[in-house]
Amino acid sequence: MDRMLYIAMTGAQQTLRTQAIISHNLANVSTVGFRKDLEDFRSMPVFSTDGMPTRVFSMTERPGIDLTQAHIMTTGRDLDIAVQGEGWIAIQAPDGEEAYTRAGDLQLDVNGQLTTATGHPVLGNAGPIAIPPAEKIDIGEDGTISIRPLGEAATEIVVVGRIRLVKPTAENPLYKDAYGFMRTKDGAAAPPDAEVKLVTGALEGSNVNPADMLVSMIQASRHFEMQIKMISAAQENANSADQLLKLE
Prior knowledge:
single chain; alpha+beta; 2 domains; three-stranded antiparallel β-sheet; 2 helices; 18 strands
């Protein structure tokens, strides 16, 4: 009886975690460069220090993220960039370490520093990129940033930096950190990759499919209802057993 109750209880608990992951994906349907979190639901044995496993429990885990490229939308804005195919834009995370993103809706802060829309510095080969006052800013497909300084002729073009573009290898894969950025598994900075190219004046959307996520949410809700019914059935069985014992 208690085994049935334990399995149903852990199943309901982990289904709530599954719903949390799905809700997070749905909340980021419109987030630029977002990569969908995957979820996996499986059973695990409970090991006792005094004997053999006697129970199993359900577990929801996030085995990774979906790296499928999303739709690229043309915006025409000079500081909007999208990564073509595989590759990532290097940024400085809140803890000061190097991290990676596909969100290319870049901005200039009051000090002329190039940042993401959330204010995190974009990195070049020599650190955060600063852009002096300019009439026009151009970002090349290789990440090179060129400007026309204030008051200069249209032919006066100055290169002020290059966005660090990387493509981590399978030997040092990426994972999503608590800030929602990608990092290498060993924490080392990935080397720049000249094969990574940008589309300028464009943004990559989220790769979350809202219809798929809504179906997954409905399925998770039904699983939760089923597990709650199992808990109720276990309680009813226990009550019936008590009644039979009283008759004796």
